[in-house]
Amino acid sequence: MRRWFGYASFRPGQREIITAILAGRDVLAILPTGGGKSLCFQVPGLILEGYTLVISPLISLMQDQVQNLRARGIAAVHVDSLMGRNTYNRALYESQERRFRFLYTSPERLRNANFLRFARRNPPAFMVVDEAHCVSQWGHDFRPSYLAIPDFLRALPARPRYAAFTATATPFVRQDIIRHLALVRPTLVVRGFDRPNLFLAKRRPWNKDRALREEMERLRGRCGIVYCATHATVERVTRLLRQQGIDAARYHAGLSVAERRETGARFAAGDLSVVAATSAFGMGIDRGDVSFILHYNMPANLEEYYQEAGRAGRDGGPAYCRLFYNEGDRALCEALLRRQAHPEHGLRLLDTMWRYCRYDGCLRNFILSYFGEGTRGPCGHCGGCQGVTGERP
After folding, report:
1. Which of 70, 97, 238, 352 could form a disulfide with 250 if both were Cys (CB 3.0 to 4.6 A apart)?
2. Can you give the chain as a three-state secondary structure string?
């Protein structure tokens, strides 16, 4: 850990997770955003013989992880649907020749016959499922392809070491992860969801644009992300920020891969301080000085909200998280959910998110209770405790 990552000590839970993996036990680790979960599988991956296969849901997340490893001199590669055939085949060939320690791919790729042949001939020493909540239909970001991971695992000539990681999972979702990923008597490591350095607040403004300008004026010069629900809202918010003299970039799936890569790289390197983005931005970007997260729109569930808010204050310093909400946000989320084949659970998660927005008490305790953690009275350090509602015209 000191040699490759420069850390002299472990964060809470890291040593326990790494020790269990090296001992050959299955692991389910729930660590809060900023808790250093990537290190928990990267350190064992460097110790074990052979390569580590990491299953990740987003191309941008894979790219960030691979880039960070390469910057440290660690051989890593990803294969994804945007690659040309030659690039894809070369990546697999070089993996076969043991030129990489880490191979990242998506759960959909595991169903590819060519990839399965490669994995059978070159089985991983260690297999990692990142963002494991995606396997649960009760989670906030269900991906049906995650359900096929156990079939891929059983198709390998020998079962590798096996671990699953996520930042957000209620007790019910944890059991769903264990069942659907076929984890065998896993070591369960859950570290506190409480992030005392985050000041959580919410606001129901009459005019969101004016509220955003007020917040950004107060936060001028600081580093942060403004999350928006749609591509169109990202574009409009970016224009608003630039009109305010803020050098802001945009990030959403409708942009070119080159622009998204450039924005992510500039933000991670510290050359860019403010980004207006949809929910995909921020995963895998290890920047400690993000000191604010604003949600221009209410997310569809509390897991997504807290995961995004948790991208602030990763250095342990004080950080500010403000959520804007109104009935229009709720209607948009509901409309999107009702397009799904089975919207019932998503609508229940949306109701919980709306209850959080309308809640008058301690916001931190509301979130901790939701994730199954005990509370010990009001925190005194959130908008609910301090009466910061901001519901003024």
Report:
1. 238
2. CHHHHCCCCCCCCHHHHHHHHHCCCCEEEECCCCCCHHHHHHHHHHHCCCCEEEECCCHHHHHHHHHHHHHCCCCEEECCCCCCHHHHHHHHHHHHCCCCCEEEECHHHHHCHHHHHHHHHCCCCEEEECCHHHHCCCCCCCCHHHHHHHHHHHHCCCCCEEEEEECCCCHHHHHHHHHHCCCCCCEEEECCCCCCCEEEEEECCCCHHHHHHHHHHHCCCCCEEEECCCHHHHHHHHHHHHHCCCCEEEECCCCCHHHHHHHHHHHHHCCCCEEEECCCCCCCCCCCCCCEEEECCCCCCHHHHHHHHCCCCCCCCCEEEEEECCHHHHHHHHHHHCCCCCCHHHHHHHHHHHHHHHCCCCHHHHHHHHCCCCCCCCCCCEHHHHCCCCCCC
